[in-house]
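Continuing the series of single-chain predictions for the mutant panel. This is the parent chain; the variants come on the following pages.
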Amino acid sequence: MTTQTYHPAPNETLGQFVDLLFQRLFFNQSDMPLVLSTYENDVAADATIEINGKNMPTAAFLEVIKEFHTTSLAKLTTIEDLVVVPLDPAARTGVVAQISKFTITNKADRKVSEHVSVTVVKVEEKEGRRVMTSLVETQS
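Parent structure:
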């Protein structure tokens, strides 16, 4: 089985980087090689993660993502950048606030639920590449 990888385009905007990061992590129909590659390449090992008021280490966040793909399928309905604040002249790093609407299908009972997520993501450059260094998420 070939492992899929993703290589960001050099001209990808800050908002696009964050949009595509979440699409690859959660909305890819459980392509775990892509999830793992994305996590390794695009999430800083020392990233700060807070979801619904709970802080977690990055390793725990990866386990949440893996468990999610084991039990659920997510389908993105909409994703919208609310605010994009570049932190460098080339706008490669910065902070992005987004709102996403999506459905989650439980694999066991096929029940579908609708969700909304608001995220604030900080993107920095480390070792010559863009990575998410902070995530604050509130999700219904």
